[in-house]
Amino acid sequence: MIHRPRKKIVTRRNLFYFIQFCILVFGVSFPFWQTAEIFNIYHPLWIIVPGVIFVLFFVLAFGTFFELPEPVLKFFKKIIGYWLGGGFILFVVMVCLSSVHFFIPIPRDIIFSSGLVISTILIIYSYHHAQHIFIHSFSVESSKITKKYTFVQLSDIHIGSNGEKEVERILEKIADIRYDFVVITGDLVDEDYATYKDLKPLSRITTPIYYITGNHEYYLRHTSFKQFINKTDITDINDKKVSFGELDIYGIDEKSDAEKILTKLNVNNDRYAIGLMHEPHTPEMQKSERQGIDMMLCGHTHNGQIFPFTWMVQARYKFIKGFYTLGNMSIHVSQGTSTWGPKMRLGTSNEITIIDLIPKEKDF
Q1: What is the longest distance spanned by two Cα atoms in the chain?
Q2: Phi then psi for 121, rounded to 5 degrees?
Q3: In this structure, are residues 288 and 258 in contact, taking their beta carbons and an 8 Å threshold?
Q4: Coil, strand, or helix at residue 299?
Q5: What residues contact residue 31 under an 8 Å CB cut-off, 6+ apart?
Q6: Buried residues in 332-345 as b, exposed as e (16+ CB within 10 A)
Q7: Do residues 181 and 207 lie in contact, with contact meaning Cβ atoms separated by under 8 Å?
């Protein structure tokens, strides 16, 4: 009889997500708790019922137990998304104002009304801010190349949560930019009801597009992300290498081990090596640097999307946004070209990154 090792259920990752979920449930119930205190409605149902409704909606929207019609599924996901986003902001504001109450005796009704006003302003701002995409750029010198290369990094577009209009907005932002190729560092598609029509505008990009998976592609239940990619001009480089001029581009699948893949692909240290990896896990970064990757491009974090959720993301990832160096390797983590869930951004931004690789004179 073969004894197979039991799969570990309680991992650090699962524990992290469980704590996140518990905080979210408490967060969406907290405003109702405050309302009950203001109006002297001391009944546990004011706290329990909103939490139960939230969990029910969450299970209907993201669970795998039910097969809901597409319009109903979209409705529940929209409700949950904005409940999470708006409720999180309201929760944080109310906690901050309630903390002030311990030091300054402010009447609770003033705290409550002030919290509603401040939260409403922040929610409106975050929604408005998320409608914009910003261009960020940086350059890196290397003695491994003899001419300049310019390319675009897109990440976390989340087709499904977002639609064709979002792709059109992205194309408008890069329409006047000259670039050699485009890379997409995961989470291109995140819903089964995403369609090829949503991705079709990308066909207007005349340069190569290189793509790897993110975690959301693996959440699809009925549709393989490859069904979408195969209908487009996008080149799937998961666990593969492609060459562009003096550059080698290595794609690392979301579920792959960087060291095993890069060893198999045999990184050529005489050529400039660019790695694409969705989640910026520090151990995988270290493995990639040891294998000879010169630049690693990632996404996934959204920089927390809605502050101060940023702090929770920082507790999990060392590399959360922007440019870093690790040994001889440059790292860039995108905040995401779009949003997941609610179309809201607070303290973070949707971004498209323009990267210039510039030849550096060799020292003799």
Answers
A1: 80
A2: -60, -45
A3: yes
A4: coil
A5: 87, 90, 91, 94
A6: bbbbbbbbbbbbbb
A7: yes
Q: What are phi and psi of 280, to 5 degrees?
A: -85, 60
DSSP β-ladder status, 209-212 and 181-185: parallel
Burial (CB < 10 A; 0-12, 13-18, 19+), residue 131, is exposed
In tens, the pLDDT along 225-246 reads 677 777 788 999 999 999 999 9
| pTM confidence score | 0.84
336 in the Ramachandran plot: left (φ > 0), alpha (ψ -120 to 50) or beta?
left
- Which residue's entry shows tokens 């666990």? 239
First to last CA, the chain: 65
Q: Where are the beta strands (DSSP E) in 63-187?
A: 133-142, 149-154, 181-185
Q: What tens digit of pLDDT does each residue of 133-142 get?
A: 999 999 999 9
- Domains of the chain are 12-129 (no CATH), 133-359 (3.60.21.10)
Smallest Cα–Cα separation from 352: which of 166, 74, 86?
A: 166
> Does the pLDDT of residue 278 top 80, yes or no?
yes
Count of CB atoms within 10 A of residue 213's CB?
Answer: 27
Torsion-angle region of 275 (φ positive above 0: left; ψ -120 to 50: alpha; else: beta): beta
Pairwise CA distance, residues 158 & 162, whole Å: 6
